[in-house]
Amino acid sequence: MALLHKASNENYLSGVQNKLMLILGKKNVVSKDVTDLLDHLCTLFFDLKRKGDVSVNAQDAVSIMIDVLEIVKPEESLKVSKICQIWEQVLQLPNVILSNQTSEKLIVWTLQSVRDENSSVLADILSFLAVAVNYKEIKQAKDLKILLGPSGFVINKLNEDRQVNNLTVLILKVLCNFTYCSGEKDWSTISKDLVEACIIQFIKIQEQQLNSDPSNFNILRVLILCFYGLENIFVRFTTSTAPHLETIFGLARYYMLFGIAGQPLKYAPIRPSSLPFVELPLKCDQTKNPKVRKKRPPSKVQSKNRNQDSHSEEIGIEPHLQTKNKTWAKNSISISSSDSELSDSDVQSYQRLKETQGKVRSSALKMLSAAFKFCDQRSVMGYWSAFLPDSSQGQVYRHSLVTPILKDCSVKVRCSALVALSSLLQAIQPTLAMASYQETRTGSFIPLSHTLAETIIAVQRSLVLSVSAEQSASALIQILKCLAVAATVFPYEKLPMELVSKTIQQCTPFLDNKDPDVKVACLSVLRILLCARSANPQIVQMFKEEKTGKCWLLEHCLTLIDGQSGFPLTLESLLVIGEVTRSNIRVAQPYFQHIVRSICHKLLTDQDSGIQIRCGKALALVGASILQEMEKEDSDQFISRDEAVQLWIYIIRHGLANILQAASVPPLKAEACAALATVGSQIFECLPRELRILFVTLALGCATDGDASVRAASIRTLGFAVTFNTLNDDASFLLDSSEKILPLLLDGNLLVALNASWALGNLADTLDKDQNSLLEEMPRDFLINLIKAAVHAAQGPMKV
């Protein structure tokens, strides 16, 4: 109770501090007093850390602990152990800030303690150090190299231990936490030598455990920590990994299948190459002439069965995954209470072992994903062929990132493999763009383009197969996300069209899935396939119904918008509608009236500002698509001018006007202004007079808005408006526009100033074209003020 009372008091540390001062003032310190004080501090800070009390004055706690270091000698092992435990709790309190001086004192005290070589307290010291190195001030301490340097105490201790034990795990925790650099801080001050030492130790430990016992939990924890540390280094210190990529990638390919039964593991560093697939399959010794046996011709039944299984052999998957109704093959054991030969504790140990082995594979794949994402693109180019499958004829099946996607029983591992595959495909997009499939190829030479096409086909088929076989919702979402990446980077126009048709066929049923996130991911795949390949008539035809010729994807999205769908599903549906309208107006033309009415209704009735903003973006895409059609010849237009005018009348009256006149959130107003800018001169001159007046009023009114994004969008709209045929001879409108444009040339926001300078250029062009009729109606000083403002803005700091 006394402890709780003390913790609730604002000055609860003052009593401890006074007691500490008394101890420091004594010439002969009583050991029992120090021990009691340390016990009290340990209990106090443990309780405070557990509660997570943000009112704790963490800096007072740090000051007290710095003073405590002076009353304990390094050879007093019990007290040193207690201090380490207390520091571990203090450093985990909220809002702790360490000064450089405090950090140096901590490192010096740690060095004095470890030099005593007392193994009984080494675990506590390492546990404290693992927490301390999370702080940037500790990471950049000068004396830290004596601990973590290539010949430092921690590294030497790691190399001395022949077997993996708890100390090995603690040392690797220290190295991992040292490499973890979170936030937006500048980490360039961290010693590159220490980072290099960490890389070498991580690689060395992994190489030592290549043929180790996969059921040893300490070894599994060590491997997880090594991959976690390398992942941190790829994120923050990518350049330091360049000399070690061959070894790191080789280890990752080995351990991404670690612990899977029936998967032969062979480690070899991966050599970079400028050409893909330079690794030839192992062949038997050709110096001897083996006897050639005459083989009987295969029967028709055998050849038929072989043809059915050829696809699964190409990409190295198990035959039972070919069917849609079969589930993943798992390394299962009987766990029934009556028939099981294993006890419940044995079953739990087995499951725990499998989970830990899965964490090893997952951590290896996460490290690969970080490498593909943060490494220089030119570095990744030399290694990508080792991680993608090859379905070329005559090639021996090899393990790739597709293998864990299809064969691993752990959902987390499959998700990690899919993320790594997505990162790799994005990194090598320029190379994949060269792919070109040759159905009828003559000669023995295989061009690079065809080899790339074979690889893409193998990847796409594997992903499509995994969609039908996957039972986990989280893994299914990752597969669909990976398919979305593939749809972005694969050149389908130079590949067999069956890849796209099978992808659409497998993904479409998931539009009615119970999980809304699965629906969103499925919509994303279909959107990219349709919009990114809108110029390909074969792909566009796949999204049309055979009888009516209408786009079933647009109809589905319009149904979702008109109904009560969730937030992410509504956003994705609006994105599909906007992108389809922008990329292929021929597909969207039959739905234009429905699209406009549904979006405007959602814009005004939905209470979520995020959905309203997406509605504004969709209207801007619809307006831009209509404007692009109006610039074509009448015979080439898919939408007539009369239809376009009626659509814009509805958009302004039942959508944009209400948003711009109401007290809407600034981002929504900015999107509404951006949509208003897509009207175009041909549509504007056909609008009713009251709507033209309303258009001008809204554009001029938003130019003085307090939000910079609204001002920028409004000035951009005025920049278009001064070029309209109906307005470019209106002297009063041009004067009003100039009054809004000129002050914004010196706006503190760069985007506003740039848009204002662009609008001023359009205004000057309009005055130049109609100078004879306009200058007579303008004030005498108008042109002078215009020139002065332009010159002054050009000489300003932003030189707009």
From TrEMBL:
InterPro entries: ARM-like (IPR011989), ARM-type_fold (IPR016024), DUF4042 (IPR025283), HEAT6 (IPR052107). It holds the Pfam family DUF4042. Residues 288-317 are annotated as: Disordered. Residues 359-537 form the DUF4042 domain. Signal peptide: none annotated. This is HEAT repeat-containing protein 6. It comes from Daphnia magna.
